[in-house]
């Protein structure tokens, strides 16, 4: 029996490793995790105190091209290499917290909506519609303007406007799973309603959400960077890829002097998004029971 | 019968599917003939290769499937040697097919009439007006009421039985010589099934086409077929005329199958059941493929594969122990009589 | 209905109705009702099999689901082992109203009509209602609130007991098992819910049941997709059986299986019935299968029972034209018997808007003018052979 289980797991893993894009995604993700974990070793620490504050290396705001001391160059007096490396931590924090909480809210609202149905469902889904009808970026900008500057405010804004698609997804999945005969069977056994949800419905509906979540971690980082770029995100000097990009805003017309302030954090962002998307794709395959049989 | 006159000859057909888990020998040495105007039944349980056989003859296999051996001769031509461009003309015009689930075989975004007209226009030299008239005619022939109205309806507006009729109309619109019907009534209710079977019989008489009826239902076989191929695990296990087959089954699988169905005209406390399950197509047993479920199986069956041999005229069976089976049937029939 | 057997009545479906609302528009207004089950009654006796047969859309599955309260019936009563179980699964207020409407108000009316409580009690033909009336008048002295309270007491236990006693086996061996649960948990779930075993005893019980239904207990840690269709159906049987129920509703339990596997499951169900004294409500569209398993058979058409009789009577001497046509439509595995068929014209009408009068009349070969006008009632034509037709036995095979 144990052998059988193990071989099944191995079969999945074998298929996983055969899938080139999945391997690429995983490697990229591992790379980012290593960078985030070993940020102090890679880029050093800020001796002035807060490590998430990029140390000033120059009082001039002019960009300085990459040198051996500042391999990614300097902009706004800040070391880009330090910013990109420590920014990896920020990216993970942003992505995981926003996705985690918005998924939590989405799952809760979606489940309640699907479970109770009727007017509860009707009201909750209309609320979802209202939230969805507001352009996401505009809403987030307004929120951060109201709440004030800072990364934590960005996170709150993005959570408030990020839960709706999860709610819809989980509601649809639950409505579908509710019709499955095994749910009726559990009901016929006399299982309690909440246990039917926990044991039979959620395990069969949560996996698409996990896949969706992993794909969105990357995109939230982009959105947050967008807000920072527009000046309503993290405060200046914060180790965040968007913040570095926002420094380059003033040098847009002189790309030959400031390209490195766009290319390095930009590449980091693109690769980060790519990593999560590829991993999400791979997860979708793994969670599909058909892949196992 | 002389197989030279056959409309379709299938000789030792082998169709393999290359899957990630290995080679699935879905059809592994199947031989039969189909004559003009007759109905050949192919019967077997799911996974026996009966549908794949018809898809192979029509050359409609997906990219994973491959005809690995054997010959398919249609009207004296080697089907495997016909280029795809000509094959497209043959399909629909000379051979046609109807499926179990008409909803998936009909395109939901086009009207029924449009789809029939498309088939007509593709194969016949007529203009649109004529094609439309022919389509309405065809719908009338398959017993669809108000064909002038129905011709402009979409598949979802028709009931299951009507959809199946529409598909038959489409398949017959070019007057094919050979029609494959793959479980055409399995998804339908009994009273609707009766309508469709009756319709197919009368259309066959009218058009004189040959019909290959693929089904798991021995009742439908008894009703429709003149000759029957019984398939098990990709092989033909028995091949006989229908009366002979039901009266004198000469393969333990056929016999088991017949006794496993609850019949309306007899009362039995316990049904005969064929023990075990159909073997995994990736890992068929050595020797006779039925040996894992056969009450007569011996070491010989587990080692050597029985050839399909004639047990009497026009009746072949692939079993090492036909004599023993005959004895067993005698005993069990005597037991039932007592 | 008259008693046709000595064995005890286990289940009575009394004027069962289940309508599904069809909603449309922005405000999800009810625009129509699908009359899936429309006033049907049947009895199931202990240790027998009642077959419920009919074509798709006839309401047979809905009837089974309503009996088990997997669908809440629109009206009618489900009486199990002499207890009215109808209100067990209703919300409390609805249950109170049900008891008032069905019992108290009726009793009060009968009393005022008959003049005395005794007259009201005696006016009931069936034992079941008479017993309740006796309780109401004698035990509770017409104290409405006390009566309602007593009926509504211990509803949680009553529900649990009902669930234990009445189980179901589904058609689809794929969608009826949770793909993410191991077989030991699928089968053991019921035992845990009802506290039939705890801890590792559950596994012993699961192993025991698995052996009984012909599965290897070594496979209990597997997931459903590792089993074949027939084995999965056995898992479904084991899940129901572990509660040691009295009644099992078999909803097309063998329809999705291959012929050889179907025979295995039918034999298994037969063996289990004998061993555990089970009662089956066997729902199927295949007359051959129904004939094989049932002692009595009810034929349904478009939400109504067309005919109900002992198996032998029904198959030897079908009286309803629908039953006759249905039997004649089945292709039999006997090429020598080329029978003259009665081919019914047209399709089954929609249950949203069923035909007037007898629902079968638009397709009936012997329909007369009265059939479109009046609805025939299900009547006993002798010896427990019920038929709802104005011209029973006139259509011959």
Keywords:
A: 293 residues; mainly alpha; two-stranded antiparallel ribbon; 74% helix; globular; B: 338 residues; alpha/beta; four-stranded antiparallel β-sheet; 13 helices; 12 strands; 23% strand
What are the SSEs and their pairings?
The complex is a heterotrimer of chains A (about 290), B (about 350) and C (about 400).
Chain A: H1 2-18, H2 20-37, H3 39-43, E1 74-75, E2 78-79, H4 80-116, H5 118-133, H6 136-147, H7 151-160, H8 164-178, H9 181-189, H10 193-229, H11 241-247, H12 255-287
Chain B: E1 8-19, E2 22-34, E3 39-43, H1 50-58, E4 65-74, E5 77-78, H2 84-93, E6 95-98, H3 102-105, H4 112-123, H5 128-141, H6 147-150, H7 160-172, E7 178-182, H8 190-207, E8 210-215, H9 218-224, E9 227-232, E10 235-241, H10 242-247, H11 252-260, H12 299-303, E11 309-312, E12 315-317, H13 322-337
Parallel strand pairs in B: 3-8, 3-9, 6-7, 7-8
Antiparallel strand pairs in B: 1-2, 1-4, 4-5, 9-10, 10-12, 11-12
Helix pairs in contact in B: 4-5, 4-7, 5-7, 7-8
Chain C: E1 9-24, E2 29-45, E3 49-53, H1 60-67, E4 75-80, E5 83-84, H2 92-114, H3 117-122, H4 127-139, H5 144-152, H6 155-165, E6 166-169, H7 183-193, H8 200-212, H9 229-241, E7 247-251, H10 259-276, E8 279-284, H11 287-293, E9 296-301, E10 304-310, H12 311-316, H13 321-329, H14 369-373, E11 379-380, E12 386-387
Parallel strand pairs in C: 3-8, 3-9, 6-7, 7-8
Antiparallel strand pairs in C: 1-2, 1-4, 4-5, 9-10, 10-12, 11-12
Helix pairs in contact in C: 2-5, 7-8, 7-9, 8-9, 9-10
Give an overview of the whole structure.
The complex is a heterotrimer of chains A (293), B (338) and C (397). By secondary structure, chain A is mainly α. Chain A is built from twelve helices and two strands. Chain A has helices at residues 2-18, 20-37, 39-43, 80-116, 118-133, 136-147, 151-160, 164-178, 181-189, 193-229, 241-247, 255-287; strands at 74-75, 78-79. Chain A has a two-stranded antiparallel ribbon with strand order 1-2. In chain A, helix 9 packs across helix 10 (193-229). The longest helix of chain A is centred in the middle third of the chain and has 37 residues, at 80-116. Helix content of chain B is 38%, strand content 23%. The model of chain B has no long low-confidence stretch (mean pLDDT 90). Chain C is 38% helix and 20% strand. Chain C has 14 helices and twelve strands. Chain C has an eight-stranded mixed sheet, with helices on both faces. In chain C, helix 10 (259-276) links the parallel strand 7 (247-251) and strand 8 (279-284). The mean pLDDT of chain C is 91. Chains in contact: A-C, B-C. Chain B binds chain C through residues 45-46, 159, 161-162, 189-195, 197-198, 216-224, 242-243, 246-247, 256-258, 260-265, 268-275, 277-278, 293, and chain C through 55-56, 228, 230-231, 258-264, 266-267, 270, 285-289, 291-293, 315, 325-337, 341, 343-345, 347-348.
């Amino acid at each position: 029996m144990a052998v059988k289980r193990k071989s099944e797991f191995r079969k999945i893993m074998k298929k996983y490793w055969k899938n080139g894009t999945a391997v690429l995604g995983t490697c990229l993700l591992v790379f980012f995790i290593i960078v985030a974990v070993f940020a102090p070793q890679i880029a050093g620490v800020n001796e002035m105190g807060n490590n998430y504050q990029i140390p000033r290396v120059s009082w001039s705001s002019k960009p300085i091209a990459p040198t051996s001391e500042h391999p990614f160059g300097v902009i706004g007096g800040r070391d880009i290499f330090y910013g990109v490396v420590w920014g990896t931590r920020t990216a993970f924090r942003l992505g995981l917290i926003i996705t985690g909480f918005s998924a939590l809210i989405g799952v809760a609202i979606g489940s309640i909506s699907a479970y109770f149905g009727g007017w509860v469902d009707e009201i909750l889904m209309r609320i979802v519609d209202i939230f969805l009808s507001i352009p996401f970026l505009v809403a987030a900008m307004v929120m951060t303007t109201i709440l004030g500057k800072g990364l934590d405010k960005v996170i709150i804004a993005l959570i408030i406007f990020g839960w709706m698609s999860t709610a819809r997804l989980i509601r649809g999945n639950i409505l579908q799973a509710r019709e499955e005969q095994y749910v009726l069977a559990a009901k016929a056994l006399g299982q309690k309603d909440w246990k039917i949800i926990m044991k039979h419905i959620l395990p069969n509906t949560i996996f698409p959400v996990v896949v969706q979540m992993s794909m969105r971690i990357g995109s939230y980082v982009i959105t947050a960077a967008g807000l920072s770029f527009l000046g309503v995100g993290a405060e200046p000097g914060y180790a965040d890829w968007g913040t570095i990009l926002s420094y380059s805003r003033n040098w847009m017309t002189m790309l030959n002097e400031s390209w490195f302030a766009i290319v390095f954090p930009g590449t980091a962002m693109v690769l980060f998004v790519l990593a999560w998307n590829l991993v999400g794709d791979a997860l979708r395959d793994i969670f599909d029971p058909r892949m196992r049989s | 019968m002389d197989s030279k006159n056959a409309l379709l000859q299938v000789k030792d057909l082998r169709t393999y599917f290359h899957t990630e888990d290995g080679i699935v020998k879905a059809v592994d040495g199947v031989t039969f003939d189909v004559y003009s105007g007759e109905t050949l039944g192919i019967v077997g349980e799911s996974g026996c290769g009966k549908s794949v056989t018809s898809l192979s003859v029509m050359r409609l296999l997906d990219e994973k499937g491959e005809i690995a051996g054997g010959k398919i001769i249609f009207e004296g031509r080697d089907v495997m040697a016909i280029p795809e461009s000509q094959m497209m003309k043959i399909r629909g015009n000379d051979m046609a097919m109807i499926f179990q689930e008409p909803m998936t075989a009909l395109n939901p975004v086009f009207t029924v009439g449009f789809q029939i007209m498309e088939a007509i226009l593709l194969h016949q030299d007529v203009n649109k007006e004529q094609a439309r008239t022919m389509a309405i005619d065809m719908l009338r022939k398959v017993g669809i009421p108000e064909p002038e109205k129905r011709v402009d309806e979409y598949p979802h507006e028709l009931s299951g039985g009507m959809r199946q009729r529409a598909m038959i109309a489409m398949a017959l619109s070019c007057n094919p010589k050979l029609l494959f019907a793959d479980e055409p009534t399995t998804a339908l209710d009994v009273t609707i099934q009766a309508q469709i079977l009756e319709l197919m019989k009368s259309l066959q008489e009218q058009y004189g086409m040959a019909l290959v009826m693929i089904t798991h239902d021995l009742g439908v076989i008894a009703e429709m077929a003149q000759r029957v191929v019984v398939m098990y695990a990709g092989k033909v296990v028995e091949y006989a005329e229908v009366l002979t087959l039901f009266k004198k089954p000469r393969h333990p699988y056929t016999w088991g199958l017949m006794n496993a169905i609850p019949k309306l005209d007899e009362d039995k406390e316990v049904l005969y059941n064929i023990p075990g399950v159909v073997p995994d197509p990736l890992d068929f047993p050595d020797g006779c493929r039925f040996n894992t479920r056969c009450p007569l199986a011996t070491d010989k069956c587990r080692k050597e594969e029985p050839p399909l041999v004639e047990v009497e005229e026009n009746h072949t069976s692939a079993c090492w122990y036909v004599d023993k089976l005959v004895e067993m049937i005698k005993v069990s029939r005597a037991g039932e009589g007592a | 209905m008259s008693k046709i057997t000595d064995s005890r009545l286990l289940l009575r479906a009394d004027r069962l109705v289940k309508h599904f609302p069809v909603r449309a528009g922005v405000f999800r207004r009810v625009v129509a009702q699908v009359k899936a089950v429309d006033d049907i009654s049947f009895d199931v006796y202990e240790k027998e099999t009642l077959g419920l047969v009919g074509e798709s859309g006839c309401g047979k599955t809905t009837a089974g689901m309503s009996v088990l309260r997997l669908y809440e019936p629109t009206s009618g009563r489900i009486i199990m082992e002499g207890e009215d179980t109808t209100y067990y699964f209703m919300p409390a207020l609805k249950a109170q109203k049900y008891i008032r409407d069905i019992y108290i108000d009726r009793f009060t009316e009968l009393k005022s009509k008959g003049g005395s409580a005794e007259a009201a009690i005696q006016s009931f033909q069936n034992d079941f209602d008479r017993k309740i009336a006796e309780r109401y008048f004698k035990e509770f002295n017409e104290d409405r609130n006390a009566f309602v309270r007593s009926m509504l007491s211990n509803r949680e236990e009553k529900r649990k007991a009902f669930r234990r006693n009445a189980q179901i086996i589904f058609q689809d061996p794929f969608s009826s098992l949770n793909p993410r649960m191991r077989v030991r948990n699928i089968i053991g779930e019921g035992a845990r819910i009802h506290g039939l075993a705890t801890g590792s005893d559950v596994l012993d019980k699961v192993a025991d049941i698995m052996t009984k239904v012909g599965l290897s207990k070594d496979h209990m840690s597997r997931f459903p997709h590792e089993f074949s269709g027939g084995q999965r159906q056995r898992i479904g049987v084991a899940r129901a059986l572990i509660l040691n129920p009295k009644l099992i509703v078999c909803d097309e339990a063998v329809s999705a299986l291959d012929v050889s596997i179907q025979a295995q499951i039918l034999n298994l169900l037969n063996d289990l019935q004998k061993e555990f004294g089970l009662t089956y409500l066997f729902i199927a569209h295949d007359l051959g299968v129904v004939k094989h398993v049932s002692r009595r058979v009810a034929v349904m058409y478009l939400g109504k029972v067309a005919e109900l009789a002992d198996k032998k009577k029904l198959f030897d001497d079908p009286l309803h034209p629908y039953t006759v046509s249905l039997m004649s439509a089945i292709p039999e595995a006997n090429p020598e018997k080329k029978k003259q068929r009665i081919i019914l014209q047209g399709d089954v009408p929609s249950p949203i808007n069923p035909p007037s009068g007898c629902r079968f009349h638009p397709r009936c070969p012997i329909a007369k003018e009265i059939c479109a006008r009046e609805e025939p009632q299900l009547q006993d034509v002798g010896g427990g052979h019920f038929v709802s037709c104005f011209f029973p036995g006139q259509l011959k095979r």
